[in-house]
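Troubleshooting log. The previous structure file for this entry was overwritten by mistake, so regenerating from the original sequence record. Sequence copied from the archived sheet and checked twice against the printout by T.R.
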Amino acid sequence: MISSITMTIFYVLLFYIWKAIFPEFFYPAWLLTLTWISAAIRIVLCLFPQNNWFRAEGSHRWGIYRNLPFAVTGLCLTILFFLSGNAGGYGFWRISIAILISFACYFPVVLWAKEKPMVGMLMMPKTLAYVWIICMGLGVIGA
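Regenerated output below.
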């Protein structure tokens, strides 16, 4: 539950980091609204006891419910970083690729890890995609 909420907060913070780096860059207002709404829905869904967080079997159905709004949050950030392209020479379009990689690795785990535990190994490249995002951001801060 904590890591699900933390991942959601990571993406909301990433939106505001982007805004701080590109204060004059235009983005559609609906993008911020949709990011917040989808993040809030995910966090609320994570708090429901039906998730069975504290039981070994968990809830596959609730895993899907809580990850659908998370996909929307990720899509919003993917669009945002793709739209910024190479603004400022930062090459933040690559962050949109890292976000897509992280979700491409994460959703098979959500869908099939219970039946095929080895699918859980996809969490490693997902985590590396997050590390890549952070390294790209630190490259901007350190520049």
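The two ends are 36 Å apart (CA to CA). Archived copy saved in two places this time.
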